[in-house]
Amino acid sequence: PRRACLPVLSAWEEWLDEGDLCDVDGLTVRVADLLRDPGTVERARAAFPADHVLVDEVQDSDPVQSEIVLL
User: What letter does residue 37 receive in the DSSP assignment?
Assistant: First the structure.
């Protein structure tokens, strides 16, 4: 069953790459990559000062989403 999905997944990823697009997972990874840069975090905190971050559905967070919250 998993092997049958590989051509579809490959075509999907190729389509995203060709159009310089991203899906939700790709967007999440891009946000995490940005926030790993200390300068980006400093600028974001200066522009949007906050004492707390509210996270809805935290039980459904994947590891990258959890990292974003911690950054």
Answer: S
Pairwise CA distance, residues 67 & 58, whole Å: 12
Q: Which of 39, 33, 21, 40 is nearest to 64 (CA)?
A: 33
- Residue pair 65/28 in contact by the 8 Å Cβ criterion: yes
Tokens of 32: 């995490």
Predicted confidence at residue 1, as pLDDT, reads: 67
Give the residue ranges of the chain where pLDDT is below 50.
none
How many residues are listed for the chain in this entry? 71
Neighbours of 66 (CB within 10 A): 13
Using CA atoms, how far residue 44 sits from 24, 40, 71, in Å, is: 21, 6, 11
